[in-house]
Design goal:
about 500 residues, alpha/beta, five-stranded mixed sheet, five-stranded parallel sheet, 15 helices, 16 strands
């Protein structure tokens, strides 16, 4: 084998300076040079060594790392040359090794910076994409939620099985979650404020398991063991994201052969010793949520990368690689952490540790049914989405209002101009062809300065200084629940009477 029968004639003293080993050690054992190469780089260096130099004038080795005697690592660029006698026969091999650590570190820093810039660009693209789809998606959700609410009210007037009411309730819950998720995506893309508060996690866990049972194949059994009623300080939508991401990933891992999805919850106390190695995590009581599957499992390399953005084991059309990265970010921002254990063929387990909210008072929000506020005023409603103008016509007319709708803002302005005394309130969408909602608002107020105008938008327009300068009487973000719409309308109109 290479180096076993090689005799070393000369070693430069620079070897001791670069490698940290004595020249004598290399004279005694030429192979020790190879042993100093970092294991991950060794194979490529060995592969570059030819069986003979007969037709070679030079060997340029790939750059590799060495482990010095003091434990530090240096980068090396080595070359080897055959030395020939007068007859062209090779009788000696000369080698040159250069310490390129400084240059390599500079290159690695540049590569790191480039990756960061690429990552920032990706996130910027995600933000742009999120903003671009938000308006259209919220229009769709608005119709789903609004007509589901109307259907729910209609069902109160007729006798029907309880499961029909339950199905409508599930549609509404799903729509509201989707509404919150869109808002969360937009907030994530612009690092917006969170809606923080004490959250009883077990309630969200129970809701998620109901949704999962309807979406997962029958070959996957769901087992629950909830032994905690503790609360955490968080955004409820984000807690829902955590459960949905972890559980849908677990389901995907078992989609071929089925299996068991286990979701457990309990309180644990972790002291400083137990948290050794966890950065920015304070000892105390944690809510431990464990999601376990009996699916395909993962190897060590996958486990180390699985929380990285855009890394996914799924086909491109099945996953974005963002889910677990987002989950990791949520848990970290809460002061918690995630442990992952998995073996190929033996399933995976995700342990999520969230600090328990220690306030003794259980400030869990409850929803009380109240009659929706009604009125008899005249409303001009403008939106380029036909389903939303139809929804507004049906829902607001049902509350006593006279509603005139337009899908074209130019036509709506013309109607307002010729019917100045008819309308008490104008409700307009923001993003419309021909004339946007802000321009419509300006034109209407030039005609009638004291008219009340509400803006409804698929974006959070309240953050835009130009929009705030228009002094809309209310700004609502799509999709808007009928109850919220009715309340906002009544507040605006009643304020008009007080003025």
């Amino acid at each position: 084998m290479l180096f076993r029968s090689i005799e070393v004639y000369y070693i430069s003293p620079a070897y001791e300076e670069i490698w940290g080993f004595s020249c004598e050690s290399l004279y005694d054992n030429p192979r020790s040079w190879l042993d100093t190469i970092v294991e991950e780089d060794r194979d490529q260096v060995v592969a570059a060594i030819p069986d003979n130099f007969d037709n070679r004038s030079e060997i340029d080795f790939p750059e590799y790392r060495i482990l010095r005697l003091d434990g530090s690592v240096r980068w090396i660029h080595a070359r080897a040359y055959p030395v020939r006698d007068d007859f062209g026969k090779i009788y000696r091999i000369a080698g040159i090794a250069e310490d390129i650590t400084e240059r390599k570190q500079t290159e690695l820093e540049k590569e790191k910076l480039q990756r960061q810039l690429q990552q920032e660009q990706k996130m910027k693209t995600i933000g742009t994409l999120a903003g671009g789809i938000a308006h259209d998606f919220n229009n769709i959700l608005g119709g789903i939620l609004g007509f589901s609410e109307l259907l729910q009210e209609d069902l109160k007037e007729i006798e029907c099985p309880d499961d029909v009411h339950d199905r409508i309730e599930y549609i509404l819950k799903g729509g509201i979650r989707a509404k919150e998720l869109v808002a969360q995506i937009l907030a994530f893309s612009r690092s917006g404020e969170e809606n923080l508060g004490p959250v009883k996690v077990v309630l969200i866990a129970k809701e998620v398991t109901q949704l999962l049972r309807a979406s997962l194949p029958a070959t996957i059994e769901i087992k629950k063991s909830f032994f905690s009623n503790s609360m955490v300080m968080a955004d409820a939508t984000k807690i829902h994201q955590i459960f949905m991401n972890l559980c849908t990933n677990a389901g995907y891992a078992m989609k071929e052969n089925g299996g068991i999805l286990s979701i457990s919850m309990k309180d644990v106390f972790l002291d400083e010793k137990a948290l050794a190695g966890q950065k920015d995590v304070t000892h105390g009581t944690f809510l431990l949520v464990s999601v376990t599957d009996t699916g395909l499992g993962m190897g060590e390399e996958t486990i180390t990368k699985i929380m990285e953005p855009f890394f996914t084991t799924k086909p491109k059309e099945k996953g974005t690689g963002m889910g677990l990265w987002v989950v990791h970010g949520i848990i970290k921002s809460m002061g918690g952490f995630i442990d992952i254990s998995s073996k190929i063929g033996q399933g995976s387990k995700f342990d999520v540790y969230m600090p328990v909210f220690n306030d003794a008072k259980e400030s869990v929000k409850t929803h009380t049914e109240k009659e929706m506020p009604m009125g008899d005023e005249n409303i001009l409603f403008v939106d380029d989405e036909l389903s939303l103008t139809q929804l507004a016509k049906e829902s607001l007319s049902g509350l006593g209002y006279s509603v005139t709708t337009f899908n074209n803002s130019v036509e709506a302005l013309d109607s307002f101009r010729h019917n100045l005394e008819r309308y008490d309130l104008v409700i307009t969408d923001m993003t419309m062809p021909e004339m946007t909602g802000d321009i419509l608002c300006r034109q209407i107020r030039l005609i009638k300065p004291d008219i009340r105008v509400m803006l409804i938008s698929g974006f959070d327009e309240s953050r835009d200084e130009k929009i705030r300068a228009l002094n809309f009487d209310a700004i609502l973000n799509k999709p808007v629940l009928i109850r919220d719409m009715a309340t906002a309308i009544r507040n605006v109109l009643d304020r008009n009477k007080q003025d």
